[in-house]
Amino acid sequence: MRLYPKNLIKTLDNAAESVAAYEKLFSTVYDKGNKARQYAISPPSVNSPAYSTILATFDKITN
To answer: End-to-end alpha-carbon separation of the chain, Å?
Structure first.
């Protein structure tokens, strides 16, 4: 008497492979999103009074 489906092991192996592939893809997208967000918030090449003014205005609006 079997208490589990015939192809349970194969299904679990396929699920493990899918989860591993999804985790790798998610990590790549997450890292790229964080990098893009970092540059959107504080671009490394921007060092100008206009940027400071924008930040000060944003601070006044949010507080």
So the answer is: 68
Hey, what amino acid is at 45? S
Are residues 5 and 11 in contact, defined by beta-carbon separation less than 8 angstroms? yes
Instruction: Give per-10-residue mean pLDDT for the chain (63 aa).
Output: 78 90 90 77 63 77 70
Distance CA 33, CA 44 (A): 16
Helix then strand then coil, in percent of the chain rounded to 5, is: 75, 0, 25
The ranges assigned to domains in the chain are: 8-62
Q: What is the spatial distance between Cα 31 and Cα 25, in angstroms, rounded to a whole number?
A: 10
The structure's pTM equals 0.48
